[in-house]
Structures are given as C-alpha cells and as structure tokens.
UniProtKB/TrEMBL annotation:
Lineage: Bacteria, Pseudomonadati, Bacteroidota, Chitinophagia, Chitinophagales
Any matching Pfam family: LytTR
Gene3D superfamilies: 3.40.50.2300, LytTr DNA-binding domain (2.40.50.1020)
Keyword DNA-binding: yes
Protein name: LytTR family DNA-binding domain-containing protein
Modified residues (4-aspartylphosphate): 55
Ranges where the Response regulatory domain occurs: 4-115
Source domain of life: Bacteria
Organism in which the protein naturally occurs: Chitinophaga pollutisoli
C-alpha cells in the first residue's frame, strides 16, 4: 500500500526537505506539492489524498483553516516553526505536529504513527488496492541571486562546485553563481540522485559519462574525486583502483 501524500508549504526549502525525507519511505507517494492553502484546497477537490503535510502559518489561508474547511480531511501532520500552534493542531485531530527545523528521526516517527493508523483501519498495509504510479516528482534547487530567488530544475544540473563562500551550479543551459555553502545545498538535493565526490563537488549520477579513480567525466569535463570520497565513489560506479 502507498500513502498518497500532499505537501503544503509556502517555503520552497521546507518542501524540498520533506520531499527528500519522503524519498526514503517507499510507502509514501507524493501526489503533489502546493505553495499555499488555496492551491491545496483545489488540489484536494480533484485528487484523493491520504495524508496532508501542511505548514500552519502561511499567507492568506492558514494550514489549520485549510483543515477546518475540509468536510472529510485526510490524516494531517502539521509542520511549523511555532510551538504555540500545537494545541490548535491537535484539536483538529492531527496525527502529529512537527516543529521546524524538522530532524529526519522526528519525521520518521510521525510517519510511523500514520502507518499504524492506516494499519488499524485496514488490518494490513496490503489490503488497500494499489493505484497507478504517479509521474516522477520533480525537484528544484532555489538559489538566491541578485536579490531574487532563481528556481533550478535539478535534472538540468551537470555539477555543483564550491568556491569559498559561493557555489557554482553548472547546468546544460547556463551557469549560476550564488552565495551558499555546498554543505547546505547537499541537504536540499535529492541525494539518491546525486553524489558528493569531493569536498568541493556534487554531481548527479545520471550525468556521469566516464569513470576513473581520480575523476569523473560529465559533459566532456573532468570532475575531480577527492581522497576521502574515493571509496564510496568507486563502489557507486564499480571502478577498480589504479594499479
């Protein structure tokens, strides 16, 4: 059984983190993400959803207002940066209440509660009929450049390079330079699709064209493999050590 899940949050980075966490749980199927409660309300009128991961404090309609507006709300996990909304959230029979920044172990505990509720209703995860697999969820990296936020499709990225306090994001269309630490970007990427190969480089596995113990080839360029990342890199790409 898969739990059809809708994520609602006005912060793109918060959505990216939840997508990354959910990617580790086969039972969780993300049907869509919404940046506000109105968009989510419309989505819920058109699609069946088992679980709502919803931020509380959003412009316009709040997450709690959204849940109150639903005649038959799905299971709800509230996500917010504010502890004071906890009582209100549980008054709405929320399964759990997560305070940002949300650690992975706390997210997993909340999902475990959801699965126990589902199991209690069905007797088994396997008793509910499967639905057709949804299209793959797209991931985006949001970069702050020249006082605006730039949205980059992670499928377009060739590699990400750290240059002191900045990162260079090389895509097939252009190169972006943003003041960001590569360690922060690493947490926002779907790392089941990317790999850190050097303290200064992260690459998408699907773009690697050639392998060597000391470098990878992407779009004709050699990307160095750092000493501390060689073992993991060789195992990933089945590369034999140099004689």
């Amino acid at each position: 059984m898969q739990i059809r899940t809708l994520i609602v949050d006005d912060e793109p980075h918060a959505i990216e983190i939840l997508l990354k966490y959910a990617a580790n749980i086969p039972e969780i199927r993300i049907v869509a993400t919404c940046s506000n409660a109105i968009e989510a309300f419309q989505m819920l009128q058109r699609h069946e959803v088992d679980l709502l991961l919803v931020d509380i404090k959003m412009p316009g309609l709040t997450g709690t207002d959204l849940v109150r507006s639903l005649k038959s709300p799905p299971m709800v996990i509230f996500t917010t940066a504010y502890h004071e909304f906890a009582v209100e959230g549980f008054d709405l029979n929320a399964v759990d209440y997560l305070v940002k920044p949300i650690p992975l172990n706390r997210f997993l505990r909340a999902i475990d509660k959801v699965m126990h509720q589902v199991k209690g209703k069905t007797g088994s995860y396997e008793e509910r009929p499967e639905t057709p697999a949804p299209p793959p969820v797209k991931h985006f990296l949001y970069l702050r450049i020249d006082r605006q936020t730039v949205k980059v499709d992670t499928e377009d990225i060739h590699w990400i390079e750290s240059i002191k306090d900045y990162i260079k994001v090389v895509t097939r269309q252009k190169i972006y330079i943003a003041k960001q630490k590569i360690s922060v970007v690493e947490k926002l990427l779907p790392m089941d699709q990317f790999i850190r190969i050097h303290r200064s480089f992260i690459v998408p596995e699907s773009k690697v064209e050639g392998y060597n113990p000391n470098y990878l080839v992407i779009a004709g360029s050699r990307i160095p493999v750092g000493r501390n990342y060689k073992q993991a890199c060789m195992e990933k790409f089945n590369v034999r050590p140099a004689p």
